[in-house]
Design a protein that fits this description.
The complex is a heterodimer of chains A (325) and B (522). By secondary structure, chain A is α+β, with helices and mostly antiparallel strands. Chain A has helices at 2-15, 25-32, 70-97, 186-192, 316-319; strands spanning 19-21, 103-105, 108-115, 122-129, 133-135, 143-154, 166-174, 177-184, 206-214, 222-229, 234-243, 246-254, 262-269, 275-283, 290-295, 301-306, 311-313. Chain A has a 16-stranded antiparallel sheet that branches. Chain A is elongated, with a radius of gyration of 25 Å. Helix content of chain B is 16%, strand content 46%. Chain B has helices at residues 2-15, 43-56, 73-92, 121-129, 195-207, 218-233, and strands at 21-29, 60-69, 96-108, 111-114, 117-120, 135-142, 171-177, 187-188, 193-194, 215-217, 244-250, 256-259, 266-269, 276-281, 287-293, 299-302, 306-313, 318-325, 330-332, 339-341, 355-367, 377-387, 394-410, 417-434, 440-457, 466-485, 488-501, 507-521. Chain B starts with a helix and ends with a strand. The chains are: A alpha+beta (325), B alpha+beta (522).
Chain lengths: 325, 522
Amino acid sequence: MRSSVLASFAALLALASGCGGDWSNADVEFSAALPRRSDVTVSMPLQSGLTASGLRESGVTAWAVGDPSKAAADARSAAQGLDLTAGFFISILEGATSIPPTTRTPELRIWGPFPNQDSPGWELQLLMTRKPVVINAGGPDPIEGFYWKIEYKQQSAQDWRAAPLVEGFYQPGEIRHGLGAVQLYAAELRASGMPSAKGLSDLGTLARLFLVYDNRTDRPHTITVQATDDASQVVTIVYQELATLSGLLVFDLRANDPQATHVQAASRWTPEYRGRSDMAVLEGTATGAHAVECWDAQQNVSYVFNPWDGIFGGDEQRDCAFGPP
Amino acid sequence: MRHALALAALVLAQAAPAQQLRRLALIAGNDEGGRDTKPLVYATADAKKIHEILVQLGGVQADDARLLLNARPQELLGALSQLEARSAEARRRGERTALLVYFSGHAKDGALRMGDGSLPLDALRARLAAAPADIRLGIFDACRSGAAVRTKGVRRAPAFDVQSDARADAQGMVILTSSASDEDSQESDSIAGSYFTHHLVSGLRGDADRSGDGRVSLSEAYAYAYDRTVADTAESAAGAQHPTFSYDLAGNGDLVLTEVSSRREGLRFPAEAPQGVYYLVDGRGRVVAEVFKEAGAERRIVLSPGKYRVKRRLDDRLRVGDVEVQGGAVSTVEESRLRDAPFSDDPVKGGSRTSWSVGLAAAYQGFFGYQDYFPPSTSLGLELQLHHYFRSDWMLDFDATLGGGKGQVPLSTISGTAAYKFTQLSVGSSIITQWPMGDVVPFAGVRLSFMVLGRQFDPAVYAKEYQAMFTWSPGALVGVKWHFAGGWHAVARLRLQYLNYNIDENRHFGFGELGGMVGYAF
């Protein structure tokens, strides 16, 4: 008995090697480079009772001073759409990195493959690398950052599809703050035949979606979404935080309408959600046309300048929270 | 009979001074007896005691003594050959020689068991009989060692007759065995040795000197060891153990084994000291001698200089006191300097029975050079210890520890660090050997622990918030224990552990833990 206890103890000593768990400094580093969902949002006061009507291509439309502001509702709707889009992609990363990676190498983490629960027979995996790459995120200078992608394929297939479902870059800066970009290959997803994943169920004619976020602490937070449809029409929405609950949303449309091939609408709002929208035709036969609508804290029109529809009212100086852009 | 023997020895010693006797000794002890035997606890310790006393008091020069511990039969026979050669050479020079062979260990089926080897008793006896020495003395402290003498007039009796031929020096062979051929030789934890050798040693230190001539003769030592061994084992579960002898000496048949008068230092028990059995415990908690003090008689034994604890057991308590033996001086045991003590304060540490103790521990832990991964921490723990389970002075320790601290993960691609709270739960077991030195007990051992580590991050830094790791960690420990009151003891300890990390990459970590514990022994 005593000898066997001693022998067992010696055997355990000999076998005492190796460990398990997810104790990883590198995992912390991977995670700390990614933004928090709560840090990549459109800053806007909560508002109930308003229904988003969708951003119209023609931009600002109102009937008269005192009427409910269509521009206010459109700006909110666009901001919420932008917020949901950014949140969708950030949440993917947060969700993936909240579980231990399946594979670890010094410069690479892989989560998966996991079966796609929304699409039986298909599987997904997330790869994240710390090998630096240089990308052009639409800014004046290329940025150097790290790369990640979500790949997908049929479970019976040997290779992952050439185009990932989503790919992204991030430029680490401070903890959970930095500059990042995400690209959704919507056209390739439709072509693959994989049933649309949750959150991507209504891609419509969307061909590609490119999102850039910047939540670095030493500058205004911005979110940019650029959507391209199958007809190569490009919509760009740029959000910039002006102050807490106050922001600027620039809606830029390049369309095939010969009258207005390039239309831009800029909406700004205060923390009380008083706001102003400016719409201008930048290209097309109506180049130079512009309209303005301001709204008060009750989201009613306080000033309108709409030469297209011949609607005017209020005093810009007095009734608008912001001056001309 | 004993008085007659003592008188005869005294007369012989005075009437016919013996020629100088060159003494050679081969002393062997084997704890392991190989297959079908349980390891002994004190066989090698007994051999050391015999070696010490023969060199100290038995007239054996250190160069003429061979001490073999856990040796193989070939080694024993080789050493015996060397001593035989020395004896033969001495005899050629005209010296008289005595060759003593002592063995403590297992014996089974007519053979001494030495690890996986065996040495037939008949062969050894024949070898000894033919040895080129005037006197050959074999002492076998082993189970059924009586088989060594059964072929020739073995007797178990409290004493043997000394043939008194004063005209000639003794010549011949004597074999003493610790038990009869059908008996087990027993060890005792309370004396940390075998009964037979323990009493033989005590007797050789002077307690067997019934004649009072300052010498302990073979017959005195045997008689003393016989009486005490039979008395101590009479009530044991294994039954009484009867030492035996085979005596074949001619001439002046008694052999002086130790000259206690040759050493001045020792302990004296004055005539007025209470009668009873006194145990002399050295600084390591070992019983080095036992003195049977009769009422009105003075006793004296030889001890090496040092500090000793004197213990006398009464029915309901102990009488305990400290005494120091200084070189060249005889110290007196004074009853007035002994104090009452409960049995839990028994100073004999080395041979305690299996017992338990519990403790509350605290420690500081730090990793060597890799604090990026594991921060320093402090911990509290509970420990349960099983003493003397595997063998005397060995301890099996079970511990459970909970600790914590704060750390930071340095970030190489991001400015800033990721702070976290660190927690550690470990359960471990240690095997520890101790070296009792009175109240102070140094110890060392090995430990295996299972560790569960966790760290909690601010979610603003790390989305997953929590990381954990579990691993086995082998290590070693050293420390010292101090018995400060009753069953209470304090421990200072250093543990060094190894940790293999293979999550991010394969890395080897070492960490140390400096701690203390307060415990209570039941």
